[in-house]
Design a protein that fits this description.
The complex is a heterodimer of chains A (167) and B (457). With 167 residues, chain A is an alpha/beta fold. In chain A, 31% of the residues lie in helices and 22% in strands. The radius of gyration of chain A is 16 Å and the shape is globular. Chain B has three domains: 149 residues, Beta-Lactamase, CATH 3.30.450; 85 residues, Helix Hairpins (Orthogonal Bundle), CATH 1.10.287.130; 149 residues, Histidine kinase-like ATPase, C-terminal domain (Heat Shock Protein 90, 2-Layer Sandwich), CATH 3.30.565. Chain B starts with a helix and ends with a strand. The chains are: A alpha/beta (167), B alpha+beta (457).
Chain lengths: 167, 457
């Protein structure tokens, strides 16, 4: 079954656990289009808005390690994943969020049950209030958070995170 | 030729070319203009002459015109006017011969009404004039005063100014090339001073962000690396000789003691056993050293093949569990890519086996046989192997020394080993164009992340 799912990301490797678990729990015949969404405050400066480029903002946020980790997941679930897209959301209102989900034909939202988001407060904001208020089905996913591990921030973090991955 | 001279010439040559083109253009356009102007002047003279000489018009005041001409027209050098009636003579052979003009000149006058000719600075202008007496050809001639004086003056001025500009620009370019190459000469001098005795010397790199500064910084980092490898080499020799001497001293001491007087059979046996243990240590050390030397970058070509890393890791697990029954190794294949081609790398099987078994064995050893997880995954262009243990870890301040041969962290005193494994592994991974990254928290564990470029078809 073809599905488009929405996940919030803060571009840390640990936030990818939601994706990893969601994929592990999915059915065999599922096929996902995945959108990793990040809420970004737009700059007020006219000059910045004049040279606004979505890709440039995303490239600034995404680290090489995160990119590699996405590829690792994509290769692992090659037959289930149709695409992984990183996107930014710059709206302020619930209706903006709703039209975003409508436009992208989102089928479900996956959220971590207990996870400390690591946002840069100046630039980014939490999308979870919007997600909770939207009418889309929300899946909560939990895992054991280990805050103090040697491989923090490295691709290695993806491999051992207490998330059981079957199939 | 020095680069400095080359730059000066390169700067000067185009300048000189542009300057001469400019001068030439000014000179010739001026000349052309002055010729045209002079011909126009002659035409006016010819018409005036025609009016005076040919038109016997009583109404026109010829005397006045003559006065006007004498008063306002400057006398040109060798100014002459000739009049030829057009009806009387059809061919102008005689006239052209007496004046030294080509016959085509007259033909042009008849055809176009006017014609120009120039011979040795004498300019001729011919026109057809309709006088009261009939049609005439009037030829006015004079020497071009402007050509003679002005153009010579212009030529001289242009020539002098070009030379002056050339000299000035030569001086400027010489100064500039000197200024540009000064830091380079300084760098050369400084680098020449540095030899193996004073490797600590560095070039002065300013805070400016220019190319020459980059060069100085590059030289400095290179010197850093040279110095480090020099020191490592020195350390390596002293450490290696020390490491090799310890078992040798033990063997010699044991032999000395046992030979000092006659002993019982048991005592001999025990002494020889001790000597054997020490000799075995010596042997394993020399073998490890040999491997380290072989895997260093010595230009030797190792045979590289297509290897599946999951199989290799299973082999390593089997071998290690055979060596020590207590080793617990968990292969975690949960992130194994679906496409098996993505875990193939181009490598030498023995060397990679050695590298991975070193790391995994370290994990087992320093975590007192707690389980060690080994995971495998692949991104789009490299294969990741992650080895995680929950052992004693490495103190953070010592992490930067772990690749030095014979270095052992301060918390490893109670474990056997002699600090060759990790440098050896790093050499091997580097040979496979991969990267190794060791992250650790003391008393919590160590994670080693290795990525090796994927085999491309």
């Amino acid at each position: 079954m073809k599905k488009t799912i929405l996940l919030q990301t803060d571009f840390t490797i640990e936030s990818l656990n939601v994706l990893k678990t969601a994929l592990a729990q999915s059915n065999h015949d599922d096929n996902f289009d995945i959108i990793l969404l990040h809420g970004v405050h737009l700059s007020d400066s006219i000059r910045d808005l004049l040279f606004f480029s979505k890709q440039k903002i995303i490239n600034q946020l995404v680290s090489e390690e995160f990119e590699q980790a996405c590829f690792v997941i994509k290769n692992k679930y090659a037959s289930k994943i149709n695409s992984i897209r990183k996107d930014i959301f710059t709206g302020f209102t619930q209706s903006a969020f709703n039209s975003y989900t409508d436009a992208n034909q989102i089928d479900a939202i996956y959220l971590p049950a207990n996870f400390q988001w690591n946002f840069n407060k100046q630039k980014s904001f939490d999308l979870i209030p919007f997600m909770n208020k939207s009418k889309l089905p929300i899946q909560q996913i939990g895992w054991q958070t280990a805050t103090n591990i040697p491989e923090k921030g490295k691709v290695a973090e993806l491999f051992f995170n207490g998330v059981p991955s079957h199939s | 030729m020095r680069t400095q001279t080359k730059t000066t010439l390169l700067f000067l040559l185009p300048f000189l070319i542009v300057l001469s083109l400019f001068g030439g253009f000014v000179y010739f356009s001026f000349l052309n203009y002055s010729h045209n102007d002079f011909f126009r002047l002659l035409e006016i003279r010819a018409i005036t002459a025609g009016k005076i000489e040919l038109d016997n018009n009583p109404t026109a005041n010829i005397k006045e015109i003559k006065e006007l001409r004498d008063q306002f027209f400057e006398k040109l050098p060798q100014e002459k006017d000739y009049f030829f009636p057009l009806e009387e003579v059809e061919k102008f052979h005689d006239e052209s011969e007496t004046l030294g003009l080509p016959i085509s000149f007259f033909e042009n006058v008849i055809k176009n009404g006017k014609s120009d000719f120039k011979k040795n600075n004498v300019f001729y202008k011919g026109i057809i004039y309709n006088s009261t007496k009939g049609k005439y050809i009037i030829v006015a001639s004079a020497e071009n005063y402007y050509e003679l004086h002005h153009s010579a003056y212009l030529k001289r001025t242009l020539f002098i100014s070009i030379i002056a500009a050339f000299i000035i620009s030569a001086l400027i370019s010489l100064y500039f090339s000197k200024y540009i190459f000064k830091p380079l000469r300084k760098i050369t001098e400084r680098v020449n001073q540095i030899s193996s005795e004073n490797l600590h010397l560095r070039l002065d790199a300013g805070s400016k962000n220019d190319e020459l500064n980059d060069l100085a910084v590059t030289f400095n980092t290179m010197l850093d690396r040279i110095e480090t490898s020099f020191e490592t080499q020195n350390n390596f020799i002293s450490n290696a000789s020390h490491e090799l001497r310890t078992p040798l001293t033990a063997i010699i001491g044991e032999a000395d003691v046992i030979l000092s007087k006659s002993r019982s059979q048991e005592e001999y046996e025990e002494a020889i056993k001790i000597m054997l243990v020490e000799a075995e240590k010596l042997e394993s050390k020399t073998r490890a050293l040999l491997f380290l030397a072989q895997t260093g970058f010595n230009g030797k070509i190792q045979k590289f093949d297509k290897i599946r890393l999951d199989q290799l890791l299973m082999d390593v697990k089997e071998t290690l569990e055979k060596i020590n029954q207590k080793n617990k190794i968990c292969l975690d294949m949960s992130l194994l890519p679906e496409n098996p081609n993505m875990i193939k790398v181009n490598g030498n099987e023995q060397l990679l086996h050695l590298a991975f078994s070193n790391i995994i064995n370290n994990g087992c050893k320093y975590s007192d046989n707690q389980p060690v997880s080994v995971a495998l995954g692949a991104s789009n262009n490299s294969v990741f192997v992650v080895i995680k243990d929950t052992g004693i870890g490495i103190p953070e301040s010592e992490l930067k020394f772990i690749y030095d041969p014979f270095f052992r962290a301060s918390n490893t005193k109670s474990y056997e080993g002699f600090g060759i494994g990790l440098p050896l592994t790093r050499n091997i991974i580097r040979m496979h164009l991969g990267e190794i990254e060791v992250k650790s928290i003391q008393n919590q564990g160590t994670t080693v992340q290795i990525n090796i470029p994927m085999y491309k078809f």
